[in-house]
Specification:
This protein is mainly α. It has two domains: 65 residues, Arc Repressor Mutant, subunit A, CATH 1.10.10; 42 residues. The protein has five helices and two strands; from the N terminus they run αααββαα. Strands 1-2 form a two-stranded antiparallel sheet.
Length: 122
């Protein structure tokens, strides 16, 4: 697993770690079922605080990228279907909420486009 943290970047270290692991899992570089290093081991390896790595792992688990199995450790999950299912569920939740707020289709879509532009283009 190839990971690097730029301590001078504007992006927080936990987010750099989260995004690198997520991308490697989605691309197949990290195969399904691969056991990730312990939080402490990875923190030591990358020169990060334990809480920084723990936060990245929690967010990866929340996103369905990894699964934590107690003493068995943290494993790469089968992310293809999981990522799409989570995205579809989030989209449905968003659509239901904007409908309750009284936004029409175009207003709701403009809000999504604006949010995606902020996330992907900064």
């Amino acid at each position: 697993m190839q990971l690097s943290i730029d301590h001078h970047a504007a992006t927080p270290p936990y987010e750099q770690l989260r995004s690198q692991i997520a991308e490697q899992a989605r691309s197949g570089v990290l195969p399904t079922g691969l056991k990730l290093p312990t939080v402490r081991a990875l923190a030591e390896q990358l020169g990060l605080a334990v809480n920084t790595v723990a936060r990245a792992y929690r967010e990866l688990e929340s996103d369905g990228v990894v699964e934590t199995h107690g003493r068995r450790g943290t494993l790469v999950a089968a992310t293809g279907d999981t990522a799409h299912k989570l995205a579809a569920a989030a989209a449905t939740e968003y659509a239901e909420r904007v409908a309750r707020l009284g936004l029409d289709h175009d207003e709701a879509q403009a809000a999504v486009t604006g949010a995606l532009d902020l996330v992907y283009r900064g």
